[in-house]
Specification:
The chain is mainly α. About 80% of the residues lie in helices and about 0% in strands. The chain has 18 helices and no strands. The chain is globular, with a radius of gyration of 20 Å.
Length: about 400
Amino acid sequence: MRTYWKLFAIPGVKRLVISAIPGRIAYAMINLTTFFYVQHATGSITLAGLATGAETVTSSLTAGIRGQAIDKFGQTKPLLIYVPAWVSIVLLLSFQTEKASLLLVSALVGLCSPPINLSTRPLWRDAVGADNLRTAYAIDTTLMNATTVIGPVIATTVSLRFGGDVALRLTALLMLTGGLSLLTMPLSRNWKPEPTNGTSFALLKDLRFQLLALEGMIFGLGWGLLEIAIPSSATLAGVPAKSAPLLAALAGASIVGGLIIGGRKSAVTPLRGFKIASLCVAFTTIPLSFTTPGWSMGISLMFLGLAIGFAQVYHWEVLEAVRPVGSATSAQAWLWTVEGSMLAIGAALGGFLVEHVSPRAAFGGVTIGLICSTAFVWLVAAKHLSQADQPLSDIQKIEALADLETPHE
């Protein structure tokens, strides 16, 4: 604990932590607030799934563009464009009632996603120096994951008590607060991008990255089904308020899992750990098809969350081991592009399956998708990822831990 207190004593650290929190909570809220608003406005779970899917796919497909903008222009100009644009469009969404406009504006929300996390991560190096990076990333990753627990709870509570339109406007206010905090922070305004070396093109041509991207696409499809199946099944069961604690159980357990593995001292290599964790993830989804929104589903999601926390750490360690030199940021951004795109498709498919078939069909789809992802890792990808079958250096572990904090922008 003494190490953490020393870190917070460094000038600028407290403000960096606090500045990122509102925007991260907004990101953790936006999909669920959109889901509840569209479902209430149209009475259609399918359309609500399509709207949240539209947000995700447009955000993920353009993630690389936002990352490149930061690398070229620094942080201030991109944030000055994206933050007010996103806030305005989310506010616009809260006034829409027609099906076509709901889908269109939802897609625009994703298109204008502000690069909050992509801006926050590189600031740590300037704020604390290389000797304190591991501690800084551990704190920031924990706070990042904590917002994924808090966000859905706020989104569900406000949506059900005051309406989805109010929840969307609160989400916009939080993003505006976080964006302004970063924009007015000297550490962000003075940050200079590193010289580019064209490694993004080398990355996309690399077989090992291509295999990880394919695995991410399969995984993203299954995870997209899960993210929409949980609130959809709770809504159909007449207990929509249970969406928040169920999602919080999943996110909270993933935090615990990540902290357990992230703080370990083990001889297990990243590749071996990822293979075992992937198996755990696939098998912990099987009980979901036999649960209902309540204690049974909550317990199943907690076990799944633990496995996801394990897999997440090992996954980024594998990426860190095999990626081309100098591609740390672009590797994360492009993986989110492909994985997030399939997650959006999964979200849309999940809403359709829940409404027109059954919640069990959607959860069964989750299991099938994640079993396929695991099989791909074991049978296809692993033989080409031999560089990840040895322990990482301390520097690689620090970089891998940093990547854990940016599942969203």
